[in-house]
Fold this protein.
Amino acid sequence: MFRNSDMLRNFLSFIVQESLKEDGMALKQYSIAIHAFGRNPDFDATADPIVRIQAGRLRRNLELYYQDEAGDDTVVISLPKGSYAPTFTYLEIKDSSNHSDGEKTTKVNNSLAVFPIKDLSSERDQHYIVEGFNEELLMELTRYKELQVIRVKEEVNDRTKNSLARFSLEGSFRFSGKTVKISISVADSYTNQLLWSTQEKFNIDDSDLIQVQEDLATSVAQQIADVSGVIFEKLFADTNWEKTRSLQAYAIYMHFYKYNKNPTEKSANDLLEKVTLLVKNEPDFAPGWAVLTNLYADAYMFGLNRQFLDQALSFGIKSIELQANNQVCQAYYAYALLINDQLDEAEIHFEKALSLNPNALYYSGAIGWAYCLLGKLDEGYSLIRKSMERDFQYPKWFHMGTFLYHLNRGEYSKALIEANKLDKPDLYWSPLIKLVACYKLSLLEQSDAHLNELMEVKPNFFDHPKEYVKALVKSETLSVEILSAVDAVVKASEMSFP
């Protein structure tokens, strides 16, 4: 619609750019004619109606564009009658399913506008510190592929600030002698609600400036953009899991991460249906295929259905083909390979996933958990502990990795502490590792109680005990130790053990 009209393109580009500038030109006929249409400085609007005529054309073409061609655009640009200043409003994303008249449509927008960090000092002789931090922060944020990061290079006025993205990040540096005070905040543009803020101080003389910038940028990005960060939590709160009929990618995506905090066989099956519909409608959405990979791998772990594992491997390959440099795709394909006993390949993909964003708390912890399953216990334990220390909302199944670490070292009291922290009654690994730890400590009454819990949660576990244990625990030493403990407790209870 605009491709064949240089005049309309120039008109739209000029008024949008000037509107976004803090000190933009007044959008009058004269300034538009001179700068957008190349008229001479003696331009007379009363004699030459070009601006009024083209404004009418632009207004109509914008309306037609958003009716017919807008696609997935999330911002609507319009030109009100009687004005040459454009307005920016969110384009509400509608559910593809039918809604009742009174049902509210969910808005999901995973975009973050990062505004230039301000230097509030009277003298700007240390502005390079501000610029350095700004670059570090942008680099860290772009590691999180689930988030659309929009870099705003210039100051914008209040009228347009809220139209650039769902969320906005702003900050400032204050210098007082050798002391630097940094303030960062994130707001929700829909409601103008301040969601998160932080302040830090450091002394220039006592600090490695580059290290301070890197550490602070990493910390801010983790708290904002990680799976347990403020943006993900807000987006999840805006959706209703029970009523999610929309196939919006990130609505489903967020609920997958909630599932991952507490995976159960039932919730895996429920989510499989939704994600399958998602990738059917968005076949190029690589993280969607990666999520399916994880869900089918979990489904195999829950029921040992080989068809599920084959599906997981197939979908994992597809996700990698679509987006090889996505941490999500690499990590979940590696998980499927691990379950399929392709351990060398799994390790390669886990290492690739970790290299893509070593600061992502959820994924670094999950990869640490996987390393413990593989028998890489020191490295795995270190990654898990780092994740736990910085993210209090870490998944409790991380404790299975720390349990294996202490079990391998013969530290059975510590192993029991870790096992008790995996307090997920619907997950069969919860009573299983508690049983093992109690047996190792000769707490036979407690181990027998956990055996009964295991029978209730997973009655068919005892039909294929080796397969269920070795579906995840790939260290031969650890799997034998777990199975030996189960065997001993079963014999003591006079149960039959295949």
About this structure: The chain has 21 helices and eight strands. The chain has a mean pLDDT of 85. The first strand starts at residue 75 and ends at 78. The domain at 358-498 is CATH 1.25.40.10 (Serine Threonine Protein Phosphatase 5, Tetratricopeptide repeat).
